[in-house]
Amino acid sequence: MNHNEQKICAVSEIDASCRVPLLALFGGAALWLVLGLALSIVASLTFHKPDMLANCAWLTYGRVQPAANDLILYGFCIPAALGVMLWIFVRLSQTPICLSLLPIVAANIWHIGVVVGTLVILSGGSTGFLWLEYGRGASVLLLAAFVLIAISAFATFGWRHHRELHVSHWFLLAALLWFPCIYATANFFLVISPVRGVAQAVIDWWFANNLIFVWLALVGIGTAFYFLPKFAGRMLHNHYLALFAFWTLIIFGTWCGIPQGAPVPAWLPAVSTVASALLIIQLIAVAKISFKTVRGANTQCKGGSFCFVKFGTAAFILSGIIFIAQACPQISRIVEFTWFGPAQTQLQLLGFFAIVMLGAIYELLPRIMGFELPFPKFVRVQHWCFIAGLVLLVGSLAVAGIEQGLKLSNPAVAFADVSNATLVAFRFSTTGLLLLLLGSLLFAANIFVMTAKWKFGLLKTCIAAVKAPLATAEVKS
Amino acid sequence: MKSSFPIFLAVFVALGASFGGFVIGAISQLGTAKQTEILNGSGVYPVQRTGDATLGLQVYRANGCAACHTTDVRQDGVTCDVVLTGMGKNLRAVEKVLGNFNTNELPKIILHNATKEAADAVSDQITTAGGQVETHIIATGADISRGWGIRRSVAMDFLWDYPVQLGSLRAGPDLANVGARLGNLNWQLQHLYAPQSVIKNSAMPPFHFLFEVRKLNGATLSPDALQLPLTQQPNEFLPPPGCVVIPTEDAKNLVAYLLSLRADVPLYEAPFTPQQTSTNSAAEKK
Does the CB of A340 have a partner CB in chain B at under 8 Å? Predict the structure, then answer.
């Protein structure tokens, strides 16, 4: 066996080592993405026909909308990210996954936590804090599961063969440390030992920003910086600029998130505004690295993983620009409290993060399973469903938000007219959500059929082993 | 680079700094706040909400009302009105400043929508001449012009609340001062049961699950029964004949909470001069 053959053998072994944990994470993630988008559609329908679910407390808008958002974030984004991170760690470490039982157990604990949290919100037990609606029980499960997976990831990192750190290591290791810190802090000060008054809101904004903007950016950009050079078949453009992007993201990004109109001391939103403005440096760095890495690459996109990651990175830049614009006092005065905010959040969650993760999963899934995707054409269809869906969803909400903001700032326009002006946009956003749901169903089909195929293969092997005639020596003994 | 130590250090420094600023800073500045004295008045603010209103906040939280409503009135600035309340003993001196006018018209606004500096200058002139003036501070901004509040929302408004739910979207109107501007109990209950019966084309979903439809069966009408307008055309909002709509405890508590939302006292950080005339009916129409 020559050196190359040895390496191929090792890589397949490395990939196979994380098959079960990753399937456990991705299987649940696919299901929660479908359910989350389905609940988003239910919530959206309220604006078309407000009395549709008047008798059902569990499906009232104020419960369904946060449940849907949390399912997309905690149900899909984070487990998908953990799976992708584990795979990148084993690949960069060139070693099989360490403590492989931990992520399997943790994946199941995580999914149980998501079920519990969703039921808590729908039954009216939400904590009332944005992006932290799951109750105490579910939060403990999620935190424990995350820590267990992080332990496995750190152990794998510690056993790496190549000691030199990759750029993605910076982003992903920071993300593994970031989430437990912010999640535990927010839960402690808001749920376990609540602070008084508006300090609750400030801590919630701090947490939400650190999760939705910083954490998602750490994982999403870290993943993109791993996959883009691989797809493009060249080195990542400017390693040092990538590290600069990392530092600027964590130094400036973590100070953002306090709204301009918040009833808090003026220094809090002022600091946020300055930090948001400085984030432009990080955006320029990420844009330059990504553009220079993929420009002129010979690799064809063809709606595959490369397209997903490229689109996701572009969406991150756009989402970042909107995020900075929202922090500008002049713009914030118009778009604050409007649909413009949810448009940016959806772009960050689905347009940037979910798409990068989907691209990564489509790339790694055939490798860990050892066989191709059952429906490879679905990948391309999903890509277009997601792009069209996101344009409709984010575009319509952003336009509705600007129109709503302009009308709200004119007291002569009655509030009913302000609301009615946004109704047309909901037709487009609901259509966008339907397309996203269709795309996520295609993703789920690939995952579940692949899992079923693998399990069926295992079953066949077991039956064959049972039916196999015993060797003469064994019979004699 | 081979060591992961700088990554740990980076996370510790970056996250630790924002933790110190936004978490510890907020707790030390806002988390230890106490009741404050009302500006130019007697009493302290805010008073603890009543028991049913406190329970109502939990109904507000459970049903995610903050997904559509904010409780955060924004303010662009203040303007000042200078009001002449008395001519004093030296009529000529005051008339020299203001010109001739009918003293029966007092109190009279002599300077409208002025800056604080301009108002102070006029006020000083008249006071020096022996006249009596008051400077009224009026908060301005689109939210205030809509009648959603009299002043901006401040941290003190939420001192006793848990959870504090400021909201981030205005699919529905702001509720920071809803108790002062829409103080009718039955109106609030009717709005929860059938929003479109009181506000045509309202996008708010009805909360039928907070009400019970009971058959009368010849019994006397419960004092709790919702008074729905019989003249409503069409009568889609009315219960079936012989039935009444009774609010559950949750509905009553939620309305008690909504009625307790009154950010209508002047504070040091949000000053204004209280107006004598009630604006309830005008706000209701809006």
Answer: no
